[in-house]
Amino acid sequence: MAKWLCTVCNIYVYDDERGDPATGIEPNTKLSDFPESWRCPVCGANKDRFVQISEEEYWQKAKAYINFTEKKEVKKGILVGVDNLETVPELKQEYGVPLGLRGIGQGLTYLANLKALSQYSLRERLITKHDDPVIATTFLGKTIDMPVLGAPMSGLSYVSNVTEEDFAYTILSGCKLAGTIGFTGNTSRDYVIHPAILAIKRVQGHGVNIFKPQSQKVLIDLIKQSEKENAVAVGVDIDGAGSVNFALAGKPVFRKTFDELRELRESTGLPFIIKGIMCIEDALAAVEAGADVIGVSNHGGRVMDSGPGVAEVLPEIAKAVKEASDKVLITADGGVRTGFDAVKMLALGADFVLAGRPLAREAVSSGVEGVKRVLEFMKNDIRIAMIMTSCNTLEDINENILLKEVRR
Fold first, then answer.
1. What is the pLDDT of residues 139-155, one digit of tens each?
2. Are strands 50-53 and 3-6 parallel, antiparallel or unpaired?
3. What is the pLDDT of residue 158?
4. pTM (2 decimals)?
5. Domains and CATH numbers, the chain
């Protein structure tokens, strides 16, 4: 008998032989024989979103799923350990360890992010004049203590008992306390007032709202609401066009044309961000459409399998953007776990680095103080990396401090 995993939540597992009394499935029922009305009890996905898995992986996931169902209403927490397909699930998370939510499909794009960064080493250089590194910088006119920002994330309410608004607020507030700026994500859950709008209001506008590529009408309305709450910036993550959660929720998302992006840019006086760039063509189109910031990102590997890692494509995109405009800022995210990873991204051409999963883990389990703590760890890493590579300013961080592994 076969064993199956839901590829949307990456939490629920099913064994043909055992069945699932909790959802009305008798023992010895094949997945193919499920009624069409059946849905995953964790995320609502239908049976078409399941893939067959090995006996070993089933038992790893089964333990995690049991833990999830028993504890999610008792204590805030995130399922751990299945993010990195090359590791055995752990009972707890530590700084620098992946969060327990792997990428879509086989997780190849997620792994590509990790592998792309791991190909680079930092080149130690110490016989130089010592100055204490200057890590502070400015982002869209706002002074921040380091070039690391909180990535836009949402959907944590599906795998924990934190609300979307509280999660967004925790990221924004934790980033603010750490001396930087957080982004909010776009939930697929129903709402009266968007959780990101409520969260940005609670922090007096100290944050950036990023929305999925929904209809122009919906997006412009959300942009106007963000503007009213004095957000630092607003934007759209165009790679959200592949969002499974939005499709399941019956909320259509779309690829965007050049003219549509220009319309969004012209709809606001706020700085405008186009995130989800993974090729030179899109990068140059975003610059021409008027983006103030482009985000090199593959959605953490959660919207398309078998894609390249961000660190693979970042150098060529950064070069093309800088040649086209010296005013457009570049952010990058994907596989960033520590400040050392952030320094690699900066050396590869990013102006700012977004941290996602490490902050999500702490936001759910430890709240605002947890987010602040991880960012402080990252800031200290950046300082150490700059000292050990003889970089006294952020401008000193470039490809010369990197050593790339030669593939054989």
1. 999 999 999 999 999 98
2. antiparallel
3. 77
4. 0.78
5. 3-105 (2.20.28.10), 137-404 (3.20.20.70)
